[in-house]
Amino acid sequence: MPPPADIVKVAIEWPGAYPKLMEIDQKKPLSAIIKEVCDGWSLANHEYFALQHADSSNFYITEKNRNEIKNGTILRLTTSPAQNAQQLHERIQSSSMDAKLEALKDLASLSRDVTFAQEFINLDGISLLTQMVESGTERYQKLQKIMKPCFGDMLSFTLTAFVELMDHGIVSWDTFSVAFIKKIASFVNKSGMDISILQRSLAILESMVLNSHDLYQKVAQEITIGQLIPHLQGTDQEIQTYTIAVINALFLKAPDERRQEMANILAQKQLRSIILTNVIRAQRAINNEMAHQLYVLQVLTFNLLEDRMMTKMDPQDQAQRDIIFELRRIAFDAESEPNNSSGSMEKRKSMYTRDYKKLGFINHVNPAMDFTQTPPGMLALDNMLYFAKHHQDAYIRIVLENSSREDKHECPFGRSSIELTKMLCEILKVGELPSETCNDFHPMFFTHDRSFEEFFCICIQLLNKTWKEMRATSEDFNKVMQVVKEQVMRALTTKPSSLDQFKCKLQNLSYTEILKIRQSERMNQEDFQSRPILELKEKIQPEILELIKQQRLNRLVEGTCFRKLNCRRRQDKFWYCRLSPNHKVLHYGDLEESPQGEVPHDSLQDKLPVADIKAVVTGKDCPHMKEKGALKQNKEVLELAFSILYDSNCQLNFIAPDKHEYCIWTDGLNALLGKDMMSELTRNDLDTLLSMEIKLRLLDLENIQIPDAPPPIPKEPSNYDFVYDCN
């Protein structure tokens, strides 16, 4: 007979004594269980004791998390969080340097536990730590030279404890003094600072900026881009990552009017080339967190274009009209006629109208009207002028080439540039906030100060080339744009390292090549409509679905590493989840770092029987997506979120690393529950596998026309005299 579900068998340690094996009744109050354990070891004052996990986490057991205790868990009897917090509060104020250092080391470790953190914060521990940072450094200034390692470790542990305590979100960031901010900023601004102190100082500054508008203004006064740049020129990727994170935070929280000014400062300090040389092209792999920060910087940089993208052209603004005149002048090199020449006014108007038609504007009389649609607004005109000035030969060639063609075969440069700019803004998601989970940065955009404009210049030449290859007419404009979008998207997925490499990728993706790719994909996904084929599909579909189901379950058995995210500070904290080979239990547990191979089963301490799962919910229905916070409002995170609901009020919350893993896990969990697999990935896999299976079965019927209907049954013969009776 199996043991009752409320009884958990555990081992409990106590220093200097043999561990005890005992059964814990989860229905009994935790205080009663602790009293029973203390009585077993003849320990008085059981209220001063608590239980905690004996693994590396050392988290306290509370009434809230006691359900996480599983059979075979090793626990430790220790002093209660309140007692521990009180003792550490006193110890870190010790006059002995060694005692103080040891206390701060223990505090840095224990502060990861929210139960201890709450008790320490209740003793005004945050204020004590900030005072130690503000004044403690001066107090030990004289000792620093002779005890530098000790001093560095002390400050490092103090800042680590502070970061861990603040990460629980119990205390508001708005409560800190200018003196504290100045002190943290001084650690960043000072050269030769200890790596661990620098790392934690950068993390604190990032959190301050992201979580408080007032602190953003104070930090912005203390930290300049010039002071952050040297940290990017080092070799420590973690310091580089935190440095870019601070720059991103300052960029993100800057008022709209300050962002362009900040972008100009970044350009003056050559941030882009420094990142390209010391990060992207450094002789080491870029980790996920660095890739994310580079992606955020890329998005924030492109978002500077949003203002121009959403600005309509004012047809009465002479400065804006002059840009159009300049485009005409460069293309046709017409000598400007004197403005006071009265007799030539009509002639000039007629000539301008003819030239604007050659330039491919929709409105030949007043081209300014072409730029009143947003997006792309004035951004399209900016791109056209950049192309005309910086790639003048290519610009003149395109305009003159098209103006010499028949009207219906010309590729309208003006209209093409406007639609292309709009399309590129959609591809790069200009104006959208960066995702919390995306790592999709493109190295080529870090190779040029005007990367978007250069991107446009390459694509407008591609558009003209594709137009000629398609022998397109004005009616084919939208078809050409679709082909160009496909060419650009396919080239971007290869992550070219430079704009020249991007150009080479596009050269290989000619219209002929796109047709071949489309034909190949169409053949692979061909939907045969004849009745026999549809009947065959219907017959083999169940076995294909079973194949997909097995693949999903096999992937769940392999497991996936999930990142722990919170809206206060992005951290490299991971947890792993996998399905047992017999498909009956989900094993999961925290990891110190992203795994580089297979994660052993015994390292995943927590278990969830599949039989206990009540439902799987996704998106906004997930409990962790209903909480308020910046992260929870992110559309991309919502699309990757899913939760397992079990027991009465328990849930296991996930945020998938990408859309593919999201589909794998939601499909696999639904398959375990006997439900249909409804993901987009399943639909695509089903179409692909069905198509392949049908083609394999029809190989012998190649070049034979399959009829839409079965052959008619012939009439019965008039007699059966031809039948041979064996009897």
Automatic annotation (TrEMBL):
**Xref: SUPFAM superfamilies:** ARM repeat (SSF48371), PH domain-like (SSF50729)
List the CDD domains hit by this protein, alphabetically. PH_ELMO1_CED-12 (cd13359)
Q: Which UniProt keywords apply?
A: Apoptosis, Cytoplasm, Membrane, Phagocytosis, Phosphoprotein, SH3-binding
Say if the entry is tagged with keyword Cytoplasm: yes
Q: Where is the ELMO domain?
A: 319-492
Q: What GO annotations for molecular function exist for this entry? A: guanyl-nucleotide exchange factor activity; SH3 domain binding
The cross-references to Pfam families, in alphabetical order and at most eight, read:
ELMO_ARM (PF11841), ELMO_CED12 (PF04727), PH_12 (PF16457)
Annotated localization: Cytoplasm; Membrane
Q: Known Gene3D superfamilies for this protein?
A: 6.10.250.810, Leucine-rich Repeat Variant (1.25.10.10), Pleckstrin-homology domain (PH domain)/Phosphotyrosine-binding domain (PTB) (2.30.29.30), SH3 Domains (2.30.30.40)
Q: Where does the protein principally reside?
A: cytoplasm
Q: What does this protein do?
A: Involved in cytoskeletal rearrangements required for phagocytosis of apoptotic cells and cell motility. Acts in association with DOCK1 and CRK. Was initially proposed to be required in complex with DOCK1 to activate Rac Rho small GTPases. May enhance the guanine nucleotide exchange factor (GEF) activity of DOCK1.
What name does this protein carry?
Answer: Engulfment and cell motility 1
Q: Which organism is it from?
A: Panthera leo
What is this organism's lineage? Eukaryota, Metazoa, Chordata, Craniata, Vertebrata
Gene it is expressed from: ELMO1
